[in-house]
């Protein structure tokens, strides 16, 4: 059984069964011993800690959610707590894992043929091959559904991809990149698996980031990049299929946001107990306690939201607007919590020695990726009013 996190005030983790909590405990120990000690160092260097991939592989969790994987399929609740736990330690490593298992593997599992799933998912599950997901473009983020500029042209048994992608996590070292491009013939968005070393494909690391610095985001260029028809995801026929993948992974970002704010709260609480001013721990001052309680309220309400979202997922009744509301709400509350935690630590909150500075910066990336707050608000607004406000 794993020990409950300090910030899990309403003991939501106890909703997991005993085996699930043992699994969570194994992941927690791996993160505590292999990721936490090196997180700040790699973040400062803006490098991905490739040595953690072996540890992730040994956990045997990647790909368990997809058909044909060995072992029981994890519940959405367990998957959520795993995402929370990873972000609670390091949002960069959590993002790496989410891109690989959620976006890349999810694309192949949802949109690939049986042959494609059999070809790629087993080695990706063993983390022998790492995946990336290329949707966002230099001039297209929120409007990429209708304004995608990357094109695909059929040429015999091949497709020729031309265009550019930006902010593509894992792409500098990925073995497989799922690239979304618009078919010039029918105008529909289709998915293609581009393998490392394909001529015409280049990935250049984006430098000078202030958030998720250990994630090696890349600018991609596809210059008459030739991909065989066998690498076109056979069941990706329009952007609706792409959106289905984003709906599933968006809930994972909400869980990550809870993990980040929970870590910030726990760091601030520990600091308040130990840091002395005016001859006493600052945790004895009323204003500090009020700040901590506001932080805990955000953590608890957000955790309650994603727990219920996971239950709806397991029931098969959740919809786009459910994950959109969770992503918008939880990342907004996360921003408040990390800001308050930084405030409580004062000057010590801006150095990596106390960890909180890393969480403050990384929160900005989580707030924006997988759909901005504004876009997710419009998804929810359309659902509750029956009226679309999209341009």
Automatic annotation (TrEMBL):
Record bears the keyword Lipoprotein: no
Record keywords: FAD, Flavoprotein, Oxidoreductase
Domain Acyl-CoA dehydrogenase/oxidase C-terminal: start-end pairs: 245-384
Residue ranges of domain Acyl-CoA dehydrogenase/oxidase N-terminal in the record: 18-128
InterPro entries: ACX4-like, Acyl-CoA_DH_CS, Acyl-CoA_Oxase/DH_mid-dom, Acyl-CoA_Oxase/DH_mid-dom_sf, AcylCo_DH-like_C, AcylCo_DH/oxidase_C, AcylCoA_DH/ox_N, AcylCoA_DH/ox_N_sf
Gene3D superfamilies linked to this entry: Acyl-CoA dehydrogenase/oxidase, N-terminal domain, Butyryl-CoA Dehydrogenase, subunit A, domain 2, Butyryl-CoA Dehydrogenase, subunit A, domain 3
PROSITE patterns registered for this protein in UniProt: ACYL_COA_DH_1
All residue ranges annotated as the Acyl-CoA oxidase/dehydrogenase middle domain in the record: 132-225
Top-rank lineage group of the source organism: Bacteria
Cofactor(s) required for function per UniProt: FAD
Recorded family membership: Belongs to the acyl-CoA dehydrogenase family.
Stated name of the protein: Acyl-CoA dehydrogenase family protein
Species name: Prauserella oleivorans
